[in-house]
Amino acid sequence: MPHIDYYFATLSPYTYLAGTRLEDIAARHGATIAYKPLDIMTLFSRTGGTPPKDRHPARQEYRAQELVRQARKLGMPFNLTPAHWPTNPAPSSYAFVAAAKDGSGDLGALVHALTRSCWADEKDIADDEVIRTCLQEAGFDPALADSGLLVGAETYAANLEEAVERGVFGAPFYITGDDERFWGQDRLEDLDMYLKAKSE
């Protein structure tokens, strides 16, 4: 059975733009997904990247144009300058870890609910009420927002270390069971094609 390790950041606009296409691809190929939220800003510093605010103006300007273009292409609502960005991604990531351990809801829907809250709905994903609403929307008990904080913190840190070791340098990032790597929501079609070719 195919497997995909999915490294993502609840604060990432590109994770938002990925929507739930990964889940569609996994369902098409009978693949399992391991969801691995991580600290994207620390990942940048560990792997030679630069946080958006510190990038050369030319790179910032291109990023701004490209995000708007991609959102329009995908037909997704998008706010280039959301009211609550950047914010602390740890609380939403810890809640996600608790939800993954619980297993009662839809993890793909939860990733999308959290990222959509930031990039389309003008909400602060560090706010407990926002996190609870996202959990409930994805079929989880909202109380998970307040549980397993130590495990959440440990898993969040471990995901970062694992990502660095495995060659991850951005989000979203997808690694197949045979170590084929795909970076960015605009590479989901390539992941789909790769899994299809492997099954033929």
Structure description:
This protein has 200 residues and is an alpha+beta fold. The protein has one domain: Glutaredoxin, CATH 3.40.30. It contains nine helices and four strands; from the N terminus they run βααβααααααββα. It has helices spanning 13-18, 21-29, 40-46, 57-74, 90-102, 107-119, 128-137, 149-165, 188-199; strands spanning 3-8, 32-37, 173-176, 181-183. A hairpin with a 4-residue loop joins β3 and β4 (181-183). It is globular and about 45 Å long. The mean pLDDT is 96.
Brief digest:
The protein is α+β, with helices and mostly antiparallel strands and 200 residues long. The protein has one domain (3-199): Glutaredoxin. Helix content is 52%, strand content 10%.
